[in-house]
Amino acid sequence: MAQRPWLSEFKTMVDAGLQALDDAKSSNDRTKVAQRYMEAFFNLRKDTSSADEAFVKNSLLEVKKFLDGTLTLSPTPRLYCNDKWLDKLSRWDVAYEGDSSKELWENSNPMAIAEVSAYKNRIFLIDEDGDRHELEPYWSEDLDQYLFDDDYKGKTYCSSQSNLGATQEQTTPKTITICPKGFTNPNAPVALGDKEPKGLEIASILPRSATLYHELFHLVLGNKNTPDVTFWRRLGEQQEMQESPDTVDKPRTESRAQRIRRNPETYTWFSVGYWYFLQTKWTTKANQRWTFDTGVAKLVSIP
Asked: Which intervals carry biased composition (Basic and acidic residues) (predicted)?
């Protein structure tokens, strides 16, 4: 399937995000808008700790270094364009030993996957909210390894219309899966800048490449360091959390503002939104720009 040059779009988006940070600390015609972006998306203000700002900047820089090739991940991650690289199994199927041609036996009896001590804690999982989950085993013939995930109502990850992409670290190497809908999503512009911003929410102008851009933050920074706090097209979630940034939702120990600064979708909105602000092709006057610091396109004048 032929695609637009997504790599160049990733670089453009991460550069726009870094430009916003630089503009916010400068004294130019973009400074005030950049500062509004910083506060709107990351709850970063002039009186915010410099460490919090450095955290956001470093997150963008790490992704930029990966895209530029100056940061490498070893072993090299795999990118799959559907979920067919995984075979869904039952937890009571006989466990494989090393590869699918060898079964695991104990005392002359075959062992079920759920009976293997190394897999029990991966099947019966307690998440950071204290909720218990029972996961199902999936086998990768390509990697000769198990992965444990949700049941998806008897189907697989990409069978859900709401699932576009996922990054996982259970296997070696790490993998990213982009579902077929991620390449053909009718709700997303084919390329960055394909939609004129007037009258649109920021979720409506995210290009198809934004899904993989989002996943790069998981991949480069690690899933544990990048929990999904909000998701694609759910701007209200971000706004609700920003209304009470100092709130700590138990049993978590971080404030809502801190969690937002680790949220890949926040970086995606921030990067794409500021890229739109930097463009002049949708305005009739040189000093007019479209901004998404409120989440909805707004025409502003800059000095």
From this structure: 247-257
Let me know how many helices (H) and strands (E) the chain has, helices first. 9, 14
Tokens of 251: 């049993």
Between CA 34 and CA 23 the distance in angstroms is 6
**pLDDT, tens digit, 9 for 90 and up, residues 185-238:** 999 999 999 999 999 999 999 999 999 999 999 999 999 999 998 765 555 666
Query: Shortest CA distance to 181 belongs to which of 154, 152, 161?
Result: 161
**Separation between Cα atoms, residue 166 and residue 177, nearest integer Å:** 5
CATH number of the domain within which 253 lies: 3.40.390
Distance CA 84, CA 158 (A): 9
Q: Which domain holds residue 252?
A: 6-80+189-301
What does the DSSP 8-state code read for residue 178? Answer: E
Distance CA 155, CA 152 (A): 5
The answer to whether residue 224 is domain-embedded is yes
* Alpha carbon distance 225, 212 (integer Å): 17
Summarised one tens digit per residue, pLDDT across range 176-195 is 999 999 999 999 999 999 99
